Amino acid sequence: MFRGFYTAASGMLTQQRRTEMLANNMANANTPGFKADQTAISSFSDMLLQRIDSQNIPTENGFRIPVNETVGSISTGVYLQEAMPLYTQGDLNETGLATDLSLENGNLPDGSALFFTVAGEDGNTKYTRNGNFTLDSQGYLTSASGLYVLDTNGNRIQPGSESFTVNDEGYLTNAAGNTTRIGVAYAETTENLLKQGDGLFATEDNTALQNGYGNVAFRIHQGFLERSNVDTSRTMTDMMASYRTFEANQKVLQAYDRSMEKAVNEVGRLG
């Protein structure tokens, strides 16, 4: 009986965490470059149930030996194993602002991704798909969270003013005619990427990703932003399904509670 409490409660906790993740996706549906999270729900190891019984031996003394009869397996509940970002391309939205940049993926291999490179506050390179850049007071190109955008050599980019152009190949030319190339990183596999706040990603051991130029085909668009890849209709449907599953587990928990109450107050009562 108590096992049922744990199983139903684990289902409720799992669906609560899944609902929180879906709500976060919905809240970032209009965040440029946001990558929606997906969940992987797994089951705890099943338990094998056996019944203790005895068997008569046809002897003069009627000898009995204990035996175990297999009843079957029972689930011990589920848990939210991990949340995995979905790295598919979002739609491009034209803004007309010179500081807005977007990456358009070419034919990337499955499981790979492209990112702009920015300088993290901890000194390590971070990666983002949010090209909603701006200029700081010194004319440096910075991300929406205030981090410096880097070129292919890992240096800060200083256009000086918004009078600059960026071509499809990532070359930025400012008003003085100076040219630098915007840093684009290529992750051959996204399995070792960690999702951080403010639309940033980092590698597990902070090792730098390889340069994207020359490895895969892509284009950079000036005056465009990549939209979030959150499917709002499906997210709302998944949230309703998660809530219904939570509610079903709640009903099971209440049924166990009533059964325990009856067992304590009525079944065990002496006449």
UniProtKB/TrEMBL annotation:
Subcellular location: Bacterial flagellum basal body
PROSITE patterns named among the record's database cross-references: FLAGELLA_BB_ROD (PS00588)
Ranges for domain Flagellar hook protein FlgE/F/G-like D1: 115-172
Alphabetical list of InterPro entries matching this protein: Flag_bb_rod_N (IPR001444), Flagellar_basal_body_rod_CS (IPR019776), Flagellar_FlgE/F/G (IPR020013), Flg_bb/hook_C_dom (IPR010930), FlgE/F/G-like (IPR037925), LlgE_F_G-like_D1 (IPR053967)
Keyword Repeat in annotation: no
GO biological process terms on file: bacterial-type flagellum-dependent swarming motility
Phylogenetic classification of the source organism: Bacteria, Bacillati, Bacillota, Bacilli, Bacillales
Protein's UniProt name: Flagellar biosynthesis protein FlgC
Pfam families given in the database record: Flg_bb_rod, Flg_bbr_C, LlgE_F_G_D1
Keywords for the protein's UniProt record, in alphabetical order: Bacterial flagellum, Cell projection, Cilium, Flagellum
Record-annotated Flagellar basal-body/hook protein C-terminal domain positions: 222-265
Cellular component annotations (GO), alphabetically ordered: bacterial-type flagellum basal body
Family note: Belongs to the flagella basal body rod proteins family.
